[in-house]
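Lecture notes, unit on protein representations.

Consider one protein chain, 333 amino acids long.
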Amino acid sequence: MSDRTKYRELCMAEPTIPIFSQDWWLDAVCGEANWDVITLEKNNDIYATLPYYFQNKRGSLYITMPLLTQTLGPWMRPTKAQKYRTKLGSEMDTLSKLVEAIPPFKSFEQYFHHSITTWLPFYWNGYRQTTRYTYIFPDLTNLDRIYEDVDHGVRKYISKAKDEIDVVETEDLRRFYEINTAVFTKQDRKVPYSYEFLSQLDGTLRRRGKRSILFAVDKSGELRAGLYLVWSGDCTYSLMSGIDPKFQNDGALRLLFWEGIKNASKVTRTFDFEGSMLKPVERNFRKFGPIQTPYLHVYKKNTFQDKLTKSLSDLRHGRRGSSKPKADTDAES
């Protein structure tokens, strides 16, 4: 049985694998032939995986992120160890084995799920890292308490919008795509994904009952904003949103997010805003009161220029030779 076949069976049985690492998600956003997975097994039981999307260019392998996919990278089955050092040691050993199993590549780039909090084995193998942030409500069971913590100004926007706007669930994907991409059009920027790509992903999510599209419509029937939610396991994600530029400063999108959070509480325990690193977007998310949560952007380029840049950086910081630590000769008890 191939690693991919084993991984498909694992995804069906293991609820802790994030939606963006699920085999069916990868089929939709990568194409069935354009992703693979590394698996680690013990006694015929998979305890760690690293799925990846790849492209072949001029005979070289490029491992990168698929469109509309927030995170990918390692998944590790939670250990039963009680001591922190034992648990961490197990994670380090597992990550080291995953790194060693990555096929030769020209370029590697992944955003790890926030549950992966260490990248040292990657660092020891020449990878680099940048910390990114998302905002998460880890527990949606008490919505009244959550709303009390929402910024007073945001609550005023939401209250006012309730008198002017109806929030409706829709199946109109074409209309959502138009409002989702309006900001790109206004700024004369290329839209990163086509309607055909989104339609393919949406079809997969719709058939699995893993998505909801919400519209904010005013009393005259004009669409002001849209929100696209996906969920799996214990978490709902705000995958995409959009607002008519002429309503940029009203409360439509804020109301949509609050209604989306309320809807999410019916199907999952947590809500992930999916970012953002953009200053104005980050400020709006933060004002809802979620927890700022770091996640890792890990990357490496196997080019002469990149290796030279790293060598110069090592010299500037007083590092010589290999960045790997010397072997630990102390026996672990």
